[in-house]
Amino acid sequence: MVAVYTLYIFDRHCECIFYTEWNRGRSPLSTDRSTAAATGGRSEGSKEPANTGHAVDGTGTHLAGDSQRPLVWPTSSTSTAHRVSPESPRNIAMEEEAKLVYGVAFSTRNIINKLNSKDSPQGGNPGGFMSFATNTYRLHYYESPTGVKFILTTDIAAVSMQPVLEMIYRNIYVEYVVKNPLFNVDPLASSPIENDYFRAVLNNYIREISTTASIA
Amino acid sequence: MIHALFIINRSGGLIYNKNFTQHVAQLSSNEALIFAGTFHGIHALASRISPAPRRDSVKDLGIQSIDTKNFRIHCYQTPTGIKFIAVTDLLQTKLSSALNKAYILYSDYALKNPFYNLEMPIRSEMFDNKLQQLVQAH
């Protein structure tokens, strides 16, 4: 039984192109959660209940999505109602956190490369950074040959998730994102993954490994 | 087998480093300082980004070990904020007792030395020798 908390995918431009979470409590960085909930509640209260149709539906789901944390980022392209505005406090915390996660993983990789061999080439993961552990979680790192970085956080019991991350890269990311004909091939711009099939397959796979004990 | 040992003071400065084997690269003094500063930073950040559900009694204490292809890094932080970092082979799963002993040596041979300046690099032959013995015992 492995508790998987979050998955981040970063492209070559250090941009977070995908984020999703499972079994996760409150975000450590969202300090203004209660105020956001309070303002949300107030604006909902000021709305007339008899207000017609679409707008109310849209706002309703939006607020519901806000008071709980969004489970994935970017949000699904088909449901525009869930598209949280970039100014919302929750989203900012998520992006700030993604930057911190990237910074920590990137710096760790670099000092390990240095320690591994003095004249290691710039970039890549020749030192073989796999994971680090604190007393509350473990962060696993996998870098594809093309420089896409997968960062998975789990509880500390999951010692090696390298095969899992490689599987996500090889059989889910490549198959459902890269082979998609609508995949953004522009090497200079990064685009978030807004692909429902990718998300569904990924969710199934994570559910599968978090219920089988064999991986740990 | 312990390949190398680093001691970092409260503010992220390197106060001791020594390689015991040739297995990891011998860092120049400049690179060792960068290593210490970077480790200090990621140690502090890692405790801030903990995704684990929060329990009031459990606080994240920062990085305790890093696994890589060729070696493993262990970190022990004392209550006063000094970090003892050991680079070992992959067979060492738990090194807290050895790092604890290194902390005792530090207290005995560096702190109790009246000529030792706090937070400054440790230059003591006695400390070197005792540490060497400790590493050989592991």
From TrEMBL, chain A:
Bias kind Polar residues: ranges: 28-37
GO BP field: endoplasmic reticulum to Golgi vesicle-mediated transport
Assigned keywords, A-Z: Endoplasmic reticulum, ER-Golgi transport, Golgi apparatus, Transport
Region listing for Disordered, in residue ranges: 28-89
Annotated localization: Endoplasmic reticulum; Golgi apparatus, cis-Golgi network
Pfam families according to UniProt: Sybindin
Cellular component, GO annotation: endoplasmic reticulum; Golgi apparatus; TRAPP complex
Main subcellular location: endoplasmic reticulum
Family from the record: Belongs to the TRAPP small subunits family. BET5 subfamily.
Subunit-level organization: Part of the multisubunit transport protein particle (TRAPP) complex.
Protein name in UniProt: Trafficking protein particle complex subunit
TrEMBL record, chain B:
Subunit structure of this chain's protein: Part of the multisubunit transport protein particle (TRAPP) complex.
The name this protein goes by in its record: Trafficking protein particle complex subunit
SMART domains linked: Sybindin
One GO CC annotation: Golgi apparatus
Record-linked Gene3D superfamilies: 3.30.450.70
Primary residence: endoplasmic reticulum
Intracellular or extracellular location(s): Endoplasmic reticulum; Golgi apparatus, cis-Golgi network; Golgi apparatus
The entry's keywords: Endoplasmic reticulum, ER-Golgi transport, Golgi apparatus, Transport
Pfam families named in the record: Sybindin (PF04099)
Family membership: Belongs to the TRAPP small subunits family. TRAPPC4 subfamily.
GO annotation (BP), single: endoplasmic reticulum to Golgi vesicle-mediated transport
Organism: Coemansia spiralis
SUPFAM superfamilies: SNARE-like
